[in-house]
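Session log. Operator J.P. requested a structure for one protein chain; no other inputs attached. Running the standard single-chain path with token output.
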Amino acid sequence: MTPEPLPPEVFVKAVLEIQQKQCAQQEWIVKFGHVRPCIHADNWGKKFIAAGKRVMWSEKWKYIPDFLLDYVPGLFGKEWWDAQVAKPEAERHQVFQWRTGCLRHRKTGHLEAEGKWAVAPDGNSAAYLSLAFNLFAIEDNGRLDDLLLHRLKHHDQFQGAWHEIVVEATCLRAGFTIEREDERDPVMRHAEFTATHKATGERLSIEAKSKHRPGVLGFAGSGQPDEKLSLAFGRLINDAAAKKPKHPLVIFLDTNLPFRAANRVYGPETNGPAIPSPYMAALLERIRIRHGGQYPFVMLAFTNIPHPYVAPHEPDPPKHVHVVMTAHPGTNQRKALDALYDGVPLYGNIPSEFPDF
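Structure written below.
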């Protein structure tokens, strides 16, 4: 039996709806990369959200930031969170302080005509919500494990774990799958993880490095004036290269500087991402010479995410990024590297509305 043809107006409406969903999906990728849109449903007066194998729900989650505010305390556990509440404010964990700052800043907002609560972005909110969304993306991809959470919850391991989360989420946004390497293996040194580009199957070894500074991100000591901050990053790059990973090496190095101090490394914003500052050019040349005239990596992404340096209610300073891609003999990862290059600037893009596609 031949089905009856659809009325023209029904057919046109169906085509338009399909096109709208396709456009919405493409807009999501442009803004947030290849992180899966939040799977959600509304039932019994509650919002249900899936993350990997877990399903969470609440009556309070109208927007994605509402969910993210509850998400990290749920991951860290009530016992850990209660222990932070009992501490003096200055001794509380960085994540707890970021979330507290985010909650306080939300109270400075106002109700808009359409019923939305509008708040001007600030540094603490950007720091907390970025971390929460990155963790959500990692869990949704089945890669969140107890060891990573353990490191994240401890002051002395937080900075390294936080930067690895930034890097891993960047790879997910760029369309890669992640396989962590066992760094506890005493036989050989390992990169943080292997990233496989879904579209091409190309594999890269990913190493994450972050500059430690006194009094910042859980490290002991007092903060230093901008002019006295160390700008030495060569050791971190050479240490990453010394691991001799299985696949072409990509290094993510966060310089961990206040925004104004970062200009000394990255140069004025007018340089653009492809033009190195004089300092950066000299550093790269020293690395090349040390390694026999050839860069030991196929990509080196310098980033500066200055969340830790903002005061309460202060706007989040701009981030610095400089990405170096090299012509490395014997490798053919250009499509994968281009995808990773496009994924780096997406850090900090947090969806507000739950998607309807």
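Operator note: DSSP finds eleven helices and eleven strands in the chain.
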